[in-house]
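Hey, can you fold this one?
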Amino acid sequence: MRVLITSSLLAALVTLAGCDSSSLGGPSLGDGGARSTAVASGAPQARYENRDYGIALDYPKERVRRVEDRGGYFNEGGWRAGVGPEAPGAALLVLRLKGSDRIRAGELHVGASRDPAALAGCTEPDAWARPKSVGQASLDGVTFTTFQGGDAAMNHYRKVHAYRAAHRGVCYAIDLVVQGTNGEVYDPPREAPFSETRAFGDLQALLDGVRLIERAP
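Sure. Predicted structure:
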């Protein structure tokens, strides 16, 4: 017997196939693929724009929320991962994945600096970078140096995928950060809200929204 699917039923099935729990108001707990379905499906967008440093970012409101602090045990307080508040530069934006908690959080950090020393060494991998992780990526037509590394101590951990580029007199730093605490130290043990793979996949998908725009005169 042949099964006939009407066009309206087919549309409904396609719509349901494209949904995940984030579109229903909660965080997605599955590993999924490398990219967030909320990002890929054209979810409602918010926009961050900084004309002073010439950078903007469009991001899906369902997947992330903007926060004021760069959280975590290893937060140095500087404009990019690996530097303290005394380093000249500006910490511009933090986007945190919804569903993040003390066990695991995912954040995108954007920072920038016009300091001559920062510009001179802008694309040099930091001391904490794994040597074999160094590569390149293109964001909005600009080539960024990429590298990966992390820290671990006292049941806390941080893993960073870093993006660096010197463009029009500004050193841009974008850090994808997955960090948290070992859930096994709790009684009873606590599970992470999402996997590291899913967190980095969702954070990397946000990079599609990066725009290097004209700076204010």
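Residues 1-41 have pLDDT under 50 and may be disordered. Let me know if you want another pass with a different chain boundary.
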